[in-house]
Structure formats: C-alpha cells, structure tokens
Amino acid sequence: MSERVRMSDIARLAGVSTVTVSKVLSHTKGNNTSVAAETAQRILDIAKQAGYKPNNAARQLKGQQSRLIGVLIDTYSSPAEFMRVSYAEQAADLEDYRLIIGQCKPDMDNIKAYLDDFYSRGIEGLIMHAHAYPSIRKEILSYCQTLPNVVYYDKPVGATEDMHYVDIDIEAGIRKLLKRAVENGRKKIVFFVPYREFKYGKFQSFLLKEKAYTEFMNEHGLPYDRNFNQRYIFPYEPGMKELIPHIQEMIEREKPDAIIARNDAVAAIILNVVLKMGLRCPEDIAITGYDNMKFTEYLSPALTTVDNRIPLVSKSAIEMLVRIIGGEELSKAETQITITPELIVRESL
C-alpha cells in the first residue's frame, strides 16, 4: 500500500471489525473486547506486512496513550552513556513503548526547549540524563519537578524524597579496582584522569571517582600525587596524540606499578604507551579501565575493568517509569534504586 495504512485497511484484510483491530494495535483503555490469540496474531502479522504505523496525534486526541518516552542526553556524552540509551530502547520495546531522543547542550533555554517539545508531542514520561551540569543543575531539577513522570539516570545532586532515579555506585566500582590492585601487591597506584576543561565545574560522577581514590589511598596509607586531578586538563577532549607524551612523563616521574585509568579508552592508550616503552603489563605496570567496553576483552593483555551493568540500569529505569505512568504506588526502594558495578578481572591486573 502506497498511502498510509489505516486500521480499517487492516480490518478488511483480516476479515474482522475495526474495533477488534483497535483492541489489538492500540491498547485502548476501556475497550474490553475479547480477541482470540489466533486472531490477534493474524492482525499483528498483517499490520507488520502492510507497514502499519499508529497515528499518535489521532490517538492523543482520542485520549489514548501515545506509548512514547522522551530521553534527554548531553550531546557530548561518552560512548558508555549512549549505550544506556540503546539498552533503554530495547527495554522500552519490550513494554511496547518507543523513545524520542534529544541531545542537548549545557544551556537552560536549550534544555527547556527540548523538554517542552517532548511533552507537546505527547510523551508519557521522561528519562532524564542531562541533569548534572554543575552550573545549572538546580534549575534543571526545579523545572523537571513541574513535569509528570520523570525518572533520572544517576541520583541527582541534592535529590529529594519524591525524585525517582536509578543510580550507579561509582565509588564502589573504583574501590573494587583499587582493592584488586592492593591484593596483587601493588603499592604505587596512579589514578590517571585526563579531562576536557571544566567550564562550569566538574560533573558529580568525576568527583565521586576522585573521592573514592583519595579516600582509599589515605585509608591504606599508600602514597599518591595529591594534585593528580589538576595535572591533565585540556581545552578539549584529549586524543591519543595529546595523551602519549603526558603518559610517558607520568610513568617516568611517578614510576607506578599500577594505573587506574579514567575509562577504557584512556586505558587502551596507556597500554599502548607502556608496551612501546619496553615495559610489561601486568608484570611491570598493571593497568585497568572503567566501563567494560566491548573492545577491552580483545586487547593484549585483555583489560581488567569495571562493568556498570548498564543493561540492568536501563531496564530498571524503563520498568520504573512504565509503572509510574500506569499509576502504580511504588515504595522508596522501588523508585530510588542504586546498582553496584561488577569488577571484570582479566589479564592486565
């Protein structure tokens, strides 16, 4: 069919009424028509073959659900952050929802424009990534509290009792790496955290990683460079060319026996430098990453890292939001979830 396929077209092809088709395809509230499983499957097969797409605008005018969820994420997010969106889409699909995705900038007007547009398009709820900009996070949270059905990825700074979120215990992830290093006899552990310049201050996730490192090192009486988090700040996200001389200088100056990298990508560059310097990993210098990106298991040696369990994080956020949209009364334990990362032990430590 070259024109838009309508429910009446599906009904004609299936040999049933439009009401029956509506029951199967629209999830219409208040429609108690019983549809046999065989008939429902026939309707779904015909709809798929015919390329049927629901008219969300019409459904909203009739007071039906749009089955849409908005997702707002920073346009410069890391690959791991974008993975959250990918897994959220998979989880939403299982709940018969679709995502509308916006990539915003650290600008309140830009963020409000995205959120207003989302709700004008009839989204039933929001997954909010972009709430941690240090200079405007209070404004963002204040505005989001005027919106219905919001779930935050990561616990917002200053979260209130009525906020819904799925958080990752980042500090626990860093501590697991450090504990592994100490158990393997490492005594000079460097946390290498090259950053893009923080125009508006550091994000909470960065601060939590640094906090976990400094507290662990102090607790165990281990030496470390107390200015480590101020040494490698670049005007833009540094690439391999920019990092190589700094990594070499850091290794020659501090002579570490273990390096905890900011993330897996940085760890891969460190591994490259270490091997080119004629050093061995892990015999001379152990190296770890963070995020458990797919490529890490194929490095040589394979990289020890931390897995934030993103599929579970995204699934939990979507399932929570769908329950909230459905009007369920949820406990605090069901709306404020913290997930502990998993240590992935491989050859590099």
Describe the protein.
This protein folds into 3 domains: 7-61, 434 Repressor (Amino-terminal Domain); 68-169 and 310-343, 3-Layer(aba) Sandwich (Rossmann fold), CATH 3.40.50; 170-307, Rossmann fold (3-Layer(aba) Sandwich), CATH 3.40.50.2300. It is an alpha/beta fold. β9, α12 (264-276) and β10 (286-288) form a beta-alpha-beta unit. It has 14 helices and 13 strands.
What keywords describe this structure?
Rossmann fold; 13 strands; 349 residues; 434 Repressor (Amino-terminal Domain)
Task: Put the structure in a nutshell.
This protein is of the alpha/beta class. Helix content is 45%, strand content 15%.
Overall geometry comes to elongated
Oligomerization state: single chain
Low-confidence stretches: 28-32
CA-CA gap between termini: 59 Å
CATH topology of the largest domain: Rossmann fold
Largest sheet: 6 strands, parallel
Q: Which class do the helix and strand fractions yield?
A: alpha/beta
- Helical fraction: 40-55%
Q: How are the strands ordered across the major sheet?
A: 2-1-3-4-5-12
| Averaged pLDDT | 88
Strand content: 5-15%
Into how many domains do the coordinates divide? Answer: 3
Using DSSP, what is the number of strands? Answer: 13
The radius of gyration is: 25 Å
Fourth CATH level, the homologous superfamily of the largest domain: Response regulator
User: What is the helix/strand order?
Assistant: HHHHEHEHEHEEHEEHHEHEHEEHHEE
> What's the architecture of the largest domain, going by CATH?
3-Layer(aba) Sandwich
Tally of helical runs? 14
The CATH class of the largest domain, by name, is Alpha Beta
